[in-house]
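Lab meeting minutes (informal)
Scribe: AK
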Amino acid sequence: MLVNLNIIDLAVVKSLDLDLAKGMSVLTGETGAGKSILLTALGLALGDRADSGYIRPGSKRAEINLEFDLSDAPQAAAWLKANELEEDSGHCLIRRVVNDDGRSKAFINNRPVTLQSLQELSEKLVEIHGQHAHLTLLNNDEQRRLLDSFGKHQPLLDQVNDAYRQWQKIHKELQSLNKANTDQSEREDLLNYQLNELQELDLADFNYVRLLDEHNKLASLGQIVSTGQRQLDVLYENDQQSVSQMLHHCLNEISQISRFAPELEAIGSMLSEAYIQTGEAAHELRRFLESQELDPQRLEAVETEIGIVQNLSRKHHVAPEELPGLVEQLQTELDNITHGSERIEQLSKQSATALAGYQALAAELSTQRRVAAGRLQQQISDMIKELGMPQGEFVVEVGALDGDQPKLNGCDKIEFLVSANPGLPPKALTKVASGGELSRISLAIQVTTSNDKTTPTMIFDEVDTGIGGGIAEIVGQKLRGLSRNRQVMCVTHLPQVASQAHHHLYVSKNSNTDITSSTVRLLDDEERVEEIARMLGGVNITQNTLAHAKEMLMTGNQNQ
C-alpha cells in the first residue's frame, strides 16, 4: 500500500509530506482548494505524461516521491525482483522529476528507469478510478475488459490472442501467395528474364569497389610507369647524381670526420641506414615497374563490365553493390512462384490447424464469459438496487461478432444493458440511463469488479458525482467495505461518504502570499466533526449541524 506521498513545487503545492494508512481515507476541501493536484501528482509519479506547466511558478523543477509497503503487493514485489530493482527493506520508492524544459526522469528504488517500466510497475500498485469513468463505460471494448477482469480471463485471453496472431500471420502469407498465383505465368517470365540478365555478371565473385579500383589502376598505368621510372632514376639509376650517390658521399665524409668527433657516429649510423633503405626502396620500385604491363584488352573488359553494372543498377533502381542481394531476392520470389502450389497447400493446412486452435480457445473463452456474465449481472443488479434503482436490472449480453474470421480478443460482442423500470426490456446504457443513473451503475461496476483484484491501493476521484442522500451513505459503505483488504482513497464532496472513512484528509488553500499554495493535513476527531458539518451545512454551522455530523461519524465507525 501507499505509505507516504511527498510533493515539492508541483502547481499549487510548494511542499507536502503526507503519511497514509490502511483502510479508507477521504480527501475533502472547498472547491478550488487543490484536491485534484494530489491526484495529478499520483498520476505523474505513476507514469502519466508530464510537461513544464505542472511546475510551481518560480521553480525550476517539480518532484513527486511515493513510498509503498510491498507486504500486500506480491505481484509488484515479483516484478521488481524480475527486473533487478528490489530492495531488502520490503518497501518500494518511486520518484518522478519534471524539469522546466518539459523533460522528466523516473526512478524506482533510486535507479533510473524508462516510463514504460514505471507504468508496468504502477499497474501492480495503484488503480485510479476517475470522475468520468461512467463515460468510458459506454465503450464496448471497456465493457469487454471489465467482464474479462471480473472473470479472471486474462490467461485464456492471452492464449486466444496468441492463436489469433499465429493464424493471422499464416493467413496473410497465404493471401499473398494466392494473389501472386493469379498472374504467376507473366511474373515468372519476367523474373527469368531479369535473372538471366543479371547473371551476365560474375556474381559469385562480384565486388564493385574492387572493380572500380582495378579500372582506375589500368586507366592510369601509363602515368604510374612513367612517374615510377623517373623516381627510380632520381633514387638510384642516375649515374650523374642520384639520392643513393649523394647519401654514399655524405656517409664517407661524415665517417672521415667522426674520427675527430666521435659524437658524429650516431649521424653516420642514420645516414648508413638511409643509404640501405634507399637501395631497398629502389629495388622494390624497379621490381614493381618490371611487373607492370599495359593491357588494353583487360581495360576494355573492365570498362564493359562497369557499364553493364551501372546499366543494371539504374534499371533495377538499386546501388551497384546491391545487385547480388537483388538476385537472391528475385530467385527467392521465383522459387516461391515455381513451388507456389506446394507452399499454398502447406499453408492451407497450417491455416486450417491454426484456425481450429483459435476457434477451440475462443469457444472456451465464450463459455467462461457467459458464466462470468451471469455472476456479474446479478451482483451489479443487486448493487444498483441498493444505490437507489429498486427496479433496476443489469444485463451483460454476450453475443457473436459479425463475420466468421478470427478476431483479436475473441469472437464475442460484450454489451452492458440496463432496465431502469419494470416491464421494460433492457437496452444499451447509452439509450436508457440518465447521468445520475449512469454514475451509480458505473460505481456499482467499479466496486463489484474490484472485489477480487489484487491491486493494493485504489483511488476514487469524485465517482459519487450525481448521488446524494441515503444513496450516498450506501456508496460510502461500499467504499469502506472495499477497504477491508486494501487501501482505498476517495476524493468526495459528500458528507455521507466522508463520514464512512477511517481517516480524513483536508485540503486547504492559502492565498495570503504572492503565489497561492495548498496544504493537506490529517484531521483529528474534533476537526472531522467540524469538516463534516461544513459539508452538511455550508457557511452557517449550527449546533444541530454539528450534532448531525457527530451522529454520522458514529454510524460510520460502527461499520466494519
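Next up, CB showed the second protein from the same session:
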Amino acid sequence: MIKKISILMIAVMLLSVLSGCKKEENKYSESVESNLFEGVDYIDHALTYDGKELTYDDSMWYVNNLKDVPLADPHVYVEDGKYYIVGTTDRDNTVIDCYTTEDFVTYQRHMAIYDPDTFDGWEHDTDPQVFAPELYCFDGVYYMYYSAHDKDGIRRNSVVVADTPLGPYRPLQNDKVDGLTSPIFLDQNTRYGGLDVTIFVDDDGQMYMYYSVISNENQHIVGVKLNSPYEADWSTYTSLVVPGALNSTNSILKPLSWEMFREGKPIAEAPYIIKSNGKYYLTYSVNGCWDKFYNVCYAVSDSPLGNYTKPYQSGGTWTNLLLGYPGTNIGNATVSSQWTGFNSGTAHHCFFKIGGQIMIGYHAHQNRAGNNGRYEERYFAFDYLHFDENGVPFCNGPTYSIQPLPEELSGYYNIAPSAQVKSENVTNAGAINDNYIVDCYNLPGQEEKEVSLGTGYSFIELKFDRAYEIGGIAIYNSAYYEKLLSEIVYIDFGNGNVVQYAQFAHDSYVNDAKEFIFPTSAFTIEFLNTFEADHVVICVKSDAAVALNEIVVLGK
C-alpha cells in the first residue's frame, strides 16, 4: 500500500505531535514543525499484509520463506556473481543437486551434478546415501567434498572433481589416489567412518580438513592438515570438539548440557571454520538434524588444530550459541512453547560472501513448529554474520521477517553504523546502530543490550557523515513482548521526507496468546522515489516503557 502524506494528515499529525512535544519541551519540536510540509511516497510493509504474507520489493529485501531451495546441509560457492548452492538432496539423496542464483529471488535447479550410480565405484551399489557436499575451486579444478555410504553401509568421506562448478563430477584418479575404488579420505583413526567434510585454507596457504567422527560414545569434530586438496597428513589428526565438553583436553566433564539435548548418543557435526582477529572459530551443529534444537555453536582457538575452548560462564546456558533456537529440552518450558511456529532445526551451516558482507547459510525445517524425533523437509535460508569489537562472530537470526538484502544485490547498504547518535528520553542509545539485534531473549544479559524508551515522547536522531540517497529503513522491535512497540509517530529525514504513524506488522510477527514477538522483526519502509538526506529523526510516543534493537538505514 502506497501512502502519500496529505495536508489533512499533516495537520492532524502536527496537532498531535507538536502538542506532545511542547509539553515535553523537546528540542526536536521546532524542526518537526518546520519540516512537515511535503510528504514522501512510500510503502509501509505492515500495511501490505493480505492475511498470508507481506508484499515487498524483492530487489531490496528478502524473506526466508523456506520454499525456494529444498536442500539440507547447504554450502554456497560464489564465482563471478553467481551463487552455487549444493547440499543433501532430500528429494533423492542418492545424488547431489545444485541450485544457482544471482539475486536470491530466482533459482535454477541443476539435477544430479554428481550421481554415484554412473560409476561402478566404492559407494553402496543400491543406496549410496550421499550427504553434505561442499564445493571449492583450487588451481582451476572444482572439488566437491562429500560423505556417502560404502558397500558395508558405513559413511566415508571423499572428493570428486569437475571442470566446471556444475560438473558433471567424476571420481578423482591420478598417480597418488584412486577415488573410484576407495574413498579418498579413508580415516585410519576410527573404524566408524565420518561425515560432513569442510575445508579451510589459512592465510599462509596451508589447507585443513574438518569433519565429524561417529564413535560408540558420540559424534565429535576432528581436524587434519592437507598436503593437497586430496591428500591428508594423518599424523596431524586431532580431536577438536566433543559435545558437552568445554574443550577436547577435558572431554569427561561436560558442563554444556544444551549440546546434549538428544537422548542417547550426543552429536557435534557439520563443522565450519572462520578466522577473525587472528583467532580460529570452529563452528558446528549440536543435537539431531531432526530436532528443533539443532543449533550452531562455536569454540575458539589460537591455531587451526586447537586447543579449542567453548565460551562458558558457570551456571549459564547457550553461552557458545551462534545461531539457533536457545531453548530447553524440558517440554513445557516457556521458551519452547513460545518459539513454536517461528523456526525449527536451524543449523548445518556455511559462511559465504555477498559482495563484502559475510552471510551464514543454513537449513531449517519447513514445518516451523518442528516435530522432535521425526525428519522434516529442510530448506535453505541465510542471514547476516557480524563481528563485535573483539572480533567474536555473532548472527542476527535465524530470521522469519523481512530483511534488507546486502548491497551487492540491492545497491543499498546500511549507513547507520557510522552515524552520530543523539537522543532524548532514551537509555542505551548507542546500541541503536551497533549491528547487534537481540534475538535470544531468554539468554542472560540480553535485555541490557536493547535501547530503552521512556514513557511519553522519545526521540532518536542519526546524523550521517554526508547526504545519502535513501531507499528504505528498518527499525527493529524489542525481543521482549512486554516492551513491544506497535507504532512509530514519525520518521523524519528532513525537507518534508516524512513517514508518519509507521506500523509494526503485528499479525505477522506477534503471538499475543503466547505473549511472544518473533525475533529480529522490524518496522520496514521502502521509498518509491529516493531522496537525499544527511540525518533521520525517529519519534515514539508510549504510555509505558518500550524498547528497540537497531535502526538500519538503506543508503547509497
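CB comment: The longest helix spans residues 7-24.
No objections, moving on.
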